[in-house]
Amino acid sequence: MGLFRLAIVVAVGVSLLPAEREKQDQLYERAASAANWTLTFCDRNAETCAKAVTFWEEFSKKAEFGAKLALDVMRDQAASGDDDKAAPANYETAVPRTPTLSPGTLTPDDVKPAWRGKTANKAGI
């Protein structure tokens, strides 16, 4: 299916290209001009590029720190073998309880969803 979509996009793209030689030359010149303009951005805007390099270096350091932190946490979690974070067996244990707040007047039956999909009739359908 993906190959079919790609073929359609390519066909639409080709059909939008100009057929006349004059228009083809004009499109080629515009594309070359746009590419040149993009490639020489830092020549025209040195200050902006210098700031971008600084921001990119800072972003890269933060991303590296975040990745190391996540990896260390996962390694510590796997090494400790804690199963406390496993998926709860039923809904009541999945409801988070905040220790500093009182549970209120709701019972576990109150927070249980009343409907869980289709219900079977007497015939089992």
SSE order and pairing:
Layout: H1 2-16, H2 21-39, H3 41-44, H4 46-80, H5 91-94, H6 108-111
What distance lies between the first and last C-alpha atoms, to the nearest angstrom?
Answer: 36 Å
The helix tally amounts to 6
Largest sheet: none
Rg over CA atoms, rounded to whole Å, is: 30 Å
User: Could you tell me the number of beta strands?
Assistant: 0
SSE sequence, one letter per element: HHHHHH
Helix content: 55-70%
Structural class: mainly alpha
User: What is the strand content?
Assistant: under 5%
What general form does the structure show?
flat
What this model shows, in words?
The chain is mostly helical and 125 residues long. The protein has a domain of 59 residues. The chain is built from six helices and no strands. The mean pLDDT is 82.
Which descriptors apply to this entry?
flat; single chain; mainly alpha; 125 residues; 0% strand
Short description:
This protein is mostly helical and 125 residues long. It has a domain at 21-79. It has six helices and no strands.
